[in-house]
Amino acid sequence: MSADRAAGHQRFLSALAAWPRRRWLAAAAAAAGACLLIAVPTDLIDTPLFSREVPPTWWSFPVLAVTAVLAGLVTATYVSRIPSPAERKTRLGAAGTIMAFFAVGCPVCNKLVLLALGTSGAMQYFEPLQPLLAALSIGLLGWALYKRTTSEDRCAVPAKPSHPAVPVPPGGSPVQDPPVNTTDRFPTAGP
How many CA atoms lie within 13 A of 144 on its CB side? Predict the structure, then answer.
């Protein structure tokens, strides 16, 4: 392992170790929510609301567990943290969670896939892609977690001033409002 990579892993682990208790609680709550949000509609958790035509694969439950934990951790990075302006506004965590939904779902129960490919196409083309979607989902969530936790120690840029800057016309002095006559009952501009 290279020195840069080892330093990145150390920065990641030390950032996680510095998390306050409320962040860990938020991670646990978000992980439980992500688990339910994915498992109920895909019928990994059996409910009377949804059903599956094709039984879940052996890897659906481990993918669900890893996805839920990573989604919870990514969500917790937003708790009590001021985002750095240097951060790119990416949505890797959301993309990873959505991909996991398609990865563990029933291939012929997904209306979008059925409309696009039909029942036989879903089984022939989409079902073999589901493990790849699962791997991409976990990869995106892991990368989002790594980038968010290792960027927390960046310096924040000071906030914008509360008043706008006074415009300066070319070759002149700043434009200012004329003085207001305050001796009248209805103040007017001018001398």
Answer: 26
- Euclidean distance between CA atoms 109 and 126, whole angstroms: 12
Which amino acid is residue 117, in one-letter code?
A: L
Taking the C-alpha atoms of residue 24 and residue 106, their distance in angstroms, rounded to an integer, is: 32
Strand, helix or coil for residue 180 = strand
pLDDT tens per residue across span 92-135: 566 666 666 666 666 656 666 666 667 677 677 778 888 888 89
Angle at the Cα of 102 (from 98 to 105), degrees rounded to 5? 130
Helix (DSSP H) and strand (DSSP E) numbers for the chain? 6, 2
CA gap 20, 77 in Å, rounded: 11
Answer whether 0.70 is exceeded by the pTM. no
